[in-house]
UniProtKB/TrEMBL annotation:
It holds the Pfam family GpP-like_1st. This is Prophage tail gpP-like protein. InterPro entries: Baseplate-like_2-layer_sand, Baseplate_GpP, Gp44/GpP-like_2nd, Gp44/GpP-like_C, GpP-like_N. Residues 320-354 are annotated as: Disordered. Residues 6-91 form the Baseplate hub protein gp44-like N-terminal domain. It comes from the Bacteria. Residues 247-329 form the Baseplate hub protein gp44/GpP-like C-terminal domain.
């Protein structure tokens, strides 16, 4: 593939001569972030004005947009032989992360988290989108609560995260719905990597208990569901007591989600590859699946990309560092063809009421 050129458009001008440029995108972060390091060749005044705090920037890799946002910090540094500047910032969604939500009543009835999010984010010029259907809820904003905090809480209850997109808007993604071409293979394009096979948070069974807000009898006062993880192989139960209104269906869903997320988090990895793109030339994207194969890391399966760090400097050239997780940590399904040591073993049973 051709050379990757990172460019930054600010104040109507396009800049490409950076000592180091880094852009980060994550499944778990509503705002993307960036850091630029540049020599102050334009002169102190010109550089400070161009990249001043609050300036709007657009960052590209060749013709692909990576980030639209604003400069948060301008940090000049000088010594006897060198003068350089560090510039840091985030995508447009940073405003909904930092700022309190304002709403005429602060109260929402029978609205989906997506509807609530778009109503609260409208004054900021931010738009939310979702990859699936969300259930209507009632919600009361806590005074001083940020838009992000309110929406993240509601999204998390329905199994979604808030992911910043390149255009500065926010998506509630369905993890693993897309796949990158090719894979990351030891001896081929895996430049460096490390893995963490960590079972410390896995349990043999997950018991969820709670009560209905109304009603009487066992179905309302003694709600319980159990999900088992046969891969643990020894007695390690955990009991989760729900504080909110709980139905048997919600308890079963919670038990399954807790089991699957713990199993997924038992296998994580960080890998570095040359360039910013997969084998077909697509920019690496958080939330996509990629095949990973490394005997040394004990991974041979599809992994979900949780974080992406694009880095370009004079040492490594253009590199991408990918933070990977087992897809089950975001609700992905077990794939019997995948083999990563014993990390994929898990009961196929659904959660049951007991």
């Amino acid at each position: 593939m051709g050379e990757e050129i990172v460019s930054v458009v600010v104040g109507g001008q396009r800049f490409t001569a950076f000592l180091r440029a880094q852009v980060r995108a994550s499944m778990k972060e509503a705002a993307r972030s960036f850091r630029l390091e540049l020599a102050a060749e334009l002169g102190a005044t010109a550089t400070a004005w161009t990249f001043r705090a609050g300036a709007q920037v657009s960052i590209y890799a060749n013709d692909d947009l990576l980030l639209v946002g604003y400069v948060d910090r301008y940090r000049p540094r000088i010594d006897a032989t060198d003068a350089r500047v560090a510039v840091e910032g985030r995508s447009k969604a940073a405003d909904i992360v930092d700022s309190s939500a304002e709403h005429e009543t602060g109260s929402f009835e029978a609205k989906t988290p997506l509807e609530i999010a778009n109503e609260l984010a409208a004054p900021f010029g931010i738009t939310f989108a979702a990859d699936g259907d969300l259930e209507p809820v009632d919600y009361q904003i806590t005074p001083g609560e940020s838009v992000f905090r309110a929406v993240e809480k509601l999204a998390r209850q329905q199994g979604y995260t808030l992911m910043g997109e390149a255009d500065g808007n926010v998506r509630l993604p369905k993890a693993g719905s897309k796949r990158h071409a090719g894979g990351i293979i030891e001896g081929h394009n895996l430049k460096s990597g490390e893995a963490d096979h960590n079972w410390s948070n896995r349990h043999s069974k997950y018991v969820v208990r709670g009560q209905r807000a109304t009603g009487s009898g066992p179905d309302s006062l003694e709600v319980e569901a159990i999900a088992r993880d046969a891969g643990v192989g020894r007695y390690r139960p955990v009991i989760i007591v729900e504080q909110d209104d709980t139905t048997p269906a919600r308890a079963r869903k919670t038990a399954r989600n807790r089991r699957d997320k713990a199993a997924g988090r038992a296998l994580t990895a960080t890998v570095t590859v040359q360039g910013f793109r997969d084998e077909r030339g697509s920019i690496w994207q958080p939330g996509w699946l990629v095949w990973v194969e490394s005997d040394f890391l004990q991974i041979r399966q599809e992994m979900l990309i949780e974080t992406v760090d694009f880095v370009q400097d004079g040492v490594g050239g253009s590199e991408t560092k990918l933070g990977l997780v087992d897809p089950r940590s975001y609700g992905g399904k077990k794939n019997k063809g995948n083999k990563s040591g014993e990390a994929w073993e898990q009961s196929d049973d659904e959660a049951t009421d007991e």
